[in-house]
Prephenate dehydratase
Amino acid sequence: MPKLAYLGPQGTFCEAALRILVPGGERLPCANVTAALDAARSGEADGAVVPLENSVEGAITVTLDELAWGEPLLITAELLLPVEFSLLVRPGTEMAHIKRVYTHPAAITQCRNFLARELPDAVVVAAPSTAAAAQEVSMEDSPYDAAIGPAIAGEHYGLHELASSMGDRDDTVTRFVRVSRPGVLPEPTGADRTSLVAFLRDDHPGALLEMLSEFSVRGVNLTRIESRPTGDGIGHYFFHFDAEGHVAEARVGEALSGLHRLSADVRFLGSYPRADRVSPQLRSGTTDPDFSEAADWIARIRSGRV
Ligand SMILES: O=C(O)C(=O)C[C@]1(C(=O)O)C=C[C@@H](O)C=C1
């Protein structure tokens, strides 16, 4: 039974994602995303499940930066989890009593309208996770009056659900990924995604365009691009890319090798099945047979068989 680290404690959205991604797996709750990834790196766990992006809040930057800079890990699976927030209080607390709210920063952003409308004067404080907030609020002497988190966290920590579906949108999803120490890649399925980060060799007009061209000329569609600061001062960035397809496919492999040639560094973050199971629409001239036919043609020319 694999042991998977996750952003704990019990009751987080991350735990819900892990239960779906690895049913029956052993679960190791961690205090934060970095600790979960470190548990996977050290071998304390066989892997980790962490949030990567949210359809309202955008990138979970701690995950992006850990995958880019930390000891290498590979994404082996992804999941899109609908997220619904509840206002969780100790039994007996009413809306009018709530002065201090505790929750994960991503939940604050996703519940902005509710907070402005219903609790405009409440101080909202960032917690390590939604379930950590619920656990804290369940203590009688907690300085917080309410937590925002999944209803299941409320049940787990004995809290009352004062409001449900608090999110500004009712169709919000968070994308979670399962990561493992580098090893065998998942097999291509025909509906895959490839993640990587690339670092510029030198900054010049069109440097990002050149990187993007490596994908576009080979018919590789991107599903996400994110710039992150390198930390070397204002104006210095590196780039995260999610692309349709698997590195085993010629067009994706060639795009990555093109990127490798023109970048200071490229870190491959994995090829894995897409959660939405969408297969790419390949343009004519970009299929594996097209690439191998073109390679054969060049080989014939080079051997004088024109
Ligand atoms: O705190 C949790 O429950 C988490 O699983 C983390 C997290 C996140 O990082 O975005 C996951 C989903 C929601 O967007 C809010 C918080």
